Each structure stands twice: as structure tokens, then as C-alpha cells.
Amino acid sequence: MNDEQGDARHLDTLDRDLARYSNLEIATSYVSRPMVGPGIALVFILIAGITAMLFFGQTSNAAIVVVATCLGAYMALNIGANDVANNMGPAVGANALTMGGAIAIAIVFESAGALLAGGDVVSTIAKGIIAPESIGTTSIFIWAMMAALLSAALWVNLATWIGAPVSTTHSVVGGVMGAGIAAAGFAAVNWPTMGAIAASWVISPVMGGAVAAGFLWLIKSRIIYRDDKIAAARVWVPILVGIMAGAFATYLALKGLKQVLDVSLPLALLIGASIGVPIWLIMIPVTRRQSRGLENRNKSLKVLFGIPLVASAALLSFAHGANDVANAVGPLAAIVQASQSGSFTDAVSLPFWVMVIGAFGISFGLFLFGPKLIRMVGSQITKLNPMRAYCVALSAAITVIVASWLGLPVSSTHIAVGGVFGVGFFREWDAERRMRRARLDMPERVSFGPEERRRRKLVRRSHFMTILAAWVITVPAAATLSGCIFWLMSAGLG
């Protein structure tokens, strides 16, 4: 009884800690009202522009830098509104975090990732999408990057409005490609690179879904379907948490800390193992203590996965801030460098103030507009609990590691959402399998018609099709929009 009271006190303490963010959640619901959120976002964009004017007001291209900074701030807001939901959605959908707690954690860790481990050097014109020598002059290059930045931001904004999580990096890639084609023709595009990016549309969600489904099968077969679930959990939960710790250590070494330390895949795996094994050993007595007094049912198992799930969401946010922010504000850095030096064929470094705009923009975007996509990913695709959400979070880290080993291009957005789909479709398959077995055992008592089968689908097909369509058209839509914007800019300037 004392153990049960201790567990209850532990959960109450966690609930109180998370409840401290209730004011933040109330504020988020307030700013989600019509015009309040957009008004605050507009103020942030204007402040970013004024800041750029204070720094570059005496230079010859001050107006260009100010406009580009405003566009970069707008893009950062959209990253926060759309991309971050993929990291926080599963934890919120599983009720491991409140919406306010998720927003607070994401703001801290996204900003830390962008400012501490971000600033990676991006190659000329967004990772070699178009050939620099094909662009005639510096002014044409600047307008092409302007068009790319604006088109990517507009597309992500539209995707957020319709409730589709899309890859902001792919949006930037599409914008750069479209502007490059409009400025220098189709020959300017690096088509092998674009082919690899197109391949990631399939590779990322399939790999993410397969890894997530595989871990859910492991949890079901080794813990949930056992007669003594608590005894099984005492064996397997420490192993699973150790795998998670090792995977995230490897993931961060490969992706999140490359600005601090350049590590190879074998070294990253060694770092992961050196962290994962001790965490596994530490979790053995911790899990044994947490599981004392728990009833032998599935609901009791959720307690054991709550804290690891929160930790995984925080680590994913850190890695996202370190990587995707740099990609998204890369065109802004390219514009600033080209306007200052007149050169656009060299590698583009990301100034610290650009990363600050990216970090603050993500935080504001998440706070103002993020809850819609967080709810979509966390609860509207399929029903998540801590165990299923844990599988989604773990799949994001492991898929990136495997893809790095195989040299495959992947999208963190597609991996995370693919993991949610993978969990949902595995649940459908598992439920159907168990239903068939029940029919064989008791055919007279188990019979479902076509209507009942449709009702029992565990993945919402409408969201599945909407998200799939948004993924497929992200690059061509952003490219088309960018080409049109560049053409309008050129016509206006001409």
C-alpha cells in the first residue's frame, strides 16, 4: 500500500509540475483567437526588420537585408507552427505532456539546439540545388533567394492552415529550385540531388513507420500479451529505455552537435553505446521500484513510459533546432552574405543573429499557431498512448541513424508522421489478426460486417490522404510559387 501511495505521490508531483504550464496553455488558447495571433506575429516580423535596420542601416543594401530579415522571421514563425508539432504531438496525444508543457519544453530545447549546436555551414544556394555559376549577377541571385524564402514560408503557412505537417526543408528546396529555373532555366538545377530528395518522400515515412511498428510489435509481444505484464515490464522497460538513450545519443552526435564536434558514424555508435548501457543498468532498479504495487493491466504500463517519452520529445526538439532551422533560414544568410560581399559562389555561413531570429521565430510560431498541428499529429491520425508514442519518438532517432549508415536522404518530418501512421496501421493489422483468431475459436460469437469493419479502422483515412498529398506536392508547389514570385519581382524591377 505504501508503494502505491509513493507512486501516486510521484505522479501527483509530476502532474503539479506540468500544471505550472497551465497559464501558458490559457495564453496559447487566447492568442489562437482570430487576429490576435497574426497581430503578435506581425509585431515580431517588424521587430526583426527594425533590428536588421539598426545593424545594417548604414550599408548600401540595407533595404534588401531588412526585407530579407522580415521574410526570414516569417519563415521561422511557420517552422514553429508546423514542423515542431512532429516532435511534440505524440507526447501530447499520449497525455504524457499537457499542451502548455509541450510548448514550454519545445521552446527551450528548439532554441537551445538552434543557438548552441546550430549555425552549420550550408553550401551555396541551399545545398547545391542549383549551380551558382548559372546565376548571372548578384542582384539576380538575391531576388531568387528572396522568392525562395517567401514561397517556402507561404507554402508552409498554407499547409499549417489546412492541417498538414510538411517538411520545411523540402519547402525551401522547392523554392530554391523554382527560383533557379525562373532565373537560369532547367539546366541550372542539380537533378540528381532533386532525385535523392524525391526518393526521401518514400524512404522517410516507410522507414519511420516500419521502425515504429517493429518496436510496437516488440512491446506487445514481450510485455502487453504476457500473463504477468508487470514482471515482463521489469525486464523489458529498462532495455527499451537504454535503447532509446543510446539511439538519441547517437542521433545527437551525428546530427545535433556537428557544429561542436564532427563525428563519424562508428564513433557516434560508440558514444550511443557508452550512454545506453549505463542507462539500461540504472533503469533496472528504477523500473522495479516504479512497478511495485501496479495492477497487472495495460493501463499500469503507461506509468513506466511517461518520463522517457517526455525526455525523447525534448531531445528531438534540440536536434530539430540544431538542423532544420539552419536549412530554413539558409536563404536569408545567403542574401545577407551576397549583399555585403557581392559574392554568391562561396559557402554560406549562418551569422549568429540569423540563428537568433530563427530560434525566436520558432518559439513565437509554436506558441501562437502550434497547437493545431500538435493535436493533428498527436490525436487525430490515430489514438496514441505512452507506449505507442514512445515507438514513434524512438523511430525518429533510429531511422536517421540507419539512413546515415546507408547514405539515404530522409526528412525528420516525414519520419515522425510516418511513425504515427506505422503505429496506427500496425494496430489495425494486429486487431484484424486477433479477430480472425477469435473467429476460429468461437465462430458463432464473433462476426463483423463490412460497415463494422470500416468503423473499426484505427487510422483516419482522410488525414492520411491529405498529408500524403501535401508531401507529394510540397516541392513542385513551392517551386511553382517561387518561380511566379521571382517573375513578378523581375517584372517589377525591370
From TrEMBL:
Subcellular location(s) per record: Membrane
Signal peptide start and end residues: none
Membrane protein topology class: Multi-pass membrane protein
Membrane among keywords: yes
TM ranges: 35-56, 62-80, 92-109, 140-160, 172-191, 197-219, 231-253, 265-283, 303-322, 350-369, 389-406, 412-429, 464-489
GO CC terms in record: membrane
Domain of life: Bacteria
MF term (GO), any: phosphate transmembrane transporter activity
Pfam families (UniProt xref): PHO4 (PF01384)
Location (main, coarse): membrane
InterPro entries: Phos_transporter (IPR001204)
GO biological process: phosphate ion transmembrane transport
Keywords (A to Z) from UniProt: Membrane, Phosphate transport, Transmembrane, Transmembrane helix, Transport
Keyword Transmembrane helix assigned: yes
The family this protein is said to belong to: Belongs to the inorganic phosphate transporter (PiT) (TC 2.A.20) family.
Protein name (Swiss-Prot/TrEMBL): Phosphate transporter
Source organism: Roseovarius nanhaiticus
